[in-house]
Specification:
globular, 11 strands, 7-stranded mixed sheet, 4-stranded antiparallel sheet
Length: about 120
């Protein structure tokens, strides 16, 4: 059994920064792929950033150059540093971890609200 616990998020003005964290506990040895998704009101959940065990990362076009995903494998934790935030980044952010990119079984964090407004 795996549990993901998220922290961070909150309210920030446009241009500001936030950092999200997601820590896994339990049977974490096979969680190679770690990612962040977000869901805005009335929209589908979308991939924001993803990191594989081989060091490959990919980002949604809308966040490239502003967001950075990183991980601490020793702590089974993934981070999302979000800079130059825009109102359109407002959403509930979820972390997701799974063994491979082809795995149907995945674990999700509880979600955390990020609100960007003046």
């Amino acid at each position: 059994q795996v549990q993901l616990v998220q922290s961070g998020g909150g309210w920030v003005q446009p241009g500001g920064s936030l950092r999200l964290s997601c820590a896994a506990s339990g049977s974490t040895f096979s969680l190679n792929v770690m990612g962040w998704y977000r869901q805005a009101p009335g929209k589908q959940r979308e991939l924001v950033a993803q990191s594989t065990g081989g060091g490959f990362t990919n980002y949604a076009d809308s966040v490239k150059g502003r967001f950075t995903i990183s991980r601490d494998n020793a702590k089974n934790t993934v981070y999302l540093q979000m800079n130059n935030l825009k109102p359109e980044d407002t959403a509930v952010y979820y972390c997701k971890m799974r063994a491979t990119v082809y795995s149907l079984n995945a674990y999700w964090g509880q979600g955390t609200q990020v609100t960007v407004s003046s």
